[in-house]
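Researcher: Structure prediction, please.
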Amino acid sequence: MILSQRLDAAAPAGGARSLVGVSFDADLAAMSERLRPLVDLVDSLPEPAARTEHQHAIAASAHHDARELREHFLATHTDRLYAELTEGFTLALTVEQIADRAARRCPGLVPTPDRMSSERRLPQRAKEGWEIDLGLLFNALFGSPAAGTHLLRSMLAPTPQALSLLPGFRSTGQADLGLATVTRRDGVAHLELRNDAYLNAEDDAAVEALETGTDLVLLDENCHVGILRGAAMTHPARRGRRVFSAGINLTHLYEGKISLLGFMVRREVGYISKYLRGLWIGDTGDTGETGDWEMTTRVKPWVGAIDGFAIGGGMQILPVLDRIVAADDAWFSLPAMEEGLVPGVANLRLGTLMGGRTARQLIFWGRRVRADEPEAALVCDDVVAPDAMDAAVDRAAQHLDNPAVAANRRMMVLGEEPLDLFRRYMARYVLEQAQRMHSADLTANLERTWIGRNGRPGGAARS
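Model: Predicted structure follows.
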């Protein structure tokens, strides 16, 4: 049977809308049955890079029909599905755990862990784009007030790694997390990113290290204030000098090593959200439906110390920190258009912080803002000479070491970014970002602006 005939045969009889309205189990069985030939058809094709134009069209049509089935199932059964996956909203699961459970419970709804493992080994250009189906799932979950709120709260729980390291950190005041370190001195915790090979760019491993470090600071009662800073580099471009962040690791993105859930979603609802909303350490049996749990999270003030530059993801962190101290030769940028991605939650936060015009100049035009420019006052609180950074950062931390800070932070966040607004943003973001990550123009942008600039795919992070 030729491919076009196989596609006609695989098309869901009666359309996707005929799935819904019977019952969860009946609709799940019907969806899985109708998805199977569509997924098999895609699997029968050559790898994306080896497909003809006709084969690409066949794959696109099969994905379209399959995603329509998934969307209509989720439109009716999202809350029931989430309740089953979390055993009646009693389990605090991560986004990765939710995806794995959904793959087992609902065949065809999302890619299996084995399929994603195989996909992860491919460069970004060669991927099938199964993460878009994860985007559909989490678009529905975050879009549900019940499921989305519970999931956001669950992602504020401390990581198992942080809990295992906590006794040692409490005892010694030090933790080496590989790509980050945490050091406590006089009640102040210094969390430093140390991704030296890539000028402190972030990747999946860096996100994990930063979240673990953030948890340790929030869990340890002897840490009153956190300082986020980049370590000094041995990289030839910045040898001996501190760098805050070069943003997303574009080399890893091009090589297919940046994941939708482990990076794009986890950093936003994980450690960055913990800076803003704190750490949830409540009872997993508490569904948190009333929203009162927001007032009981463990929050602490954070100082951002900006040496060198804060590019892309580095700049995205700044709006959630309480005091920004920058060296007068530092600069900020958010080159989302060059990368072809959505810059996290910056689209939600930067307009409030800097105004819509400046936010558009940063996101659409790649504008750089120097710390000594007037507009930088919308980002930075203190701008000092590089050799005065240590003293200025310490002063900021000492000032924020005040018991009244936590209560005021909670009240400010309620007004500035209500949880429901963040939830709805994340619902749209996860799907938009999944589609961006697997768009043809993304790899073309990287080859034109980053990989080409460095002369080879394995180049170091931007400078």
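Model: The first helix runs from residue 3 to 10.
Researcher: Thanks, that helps.
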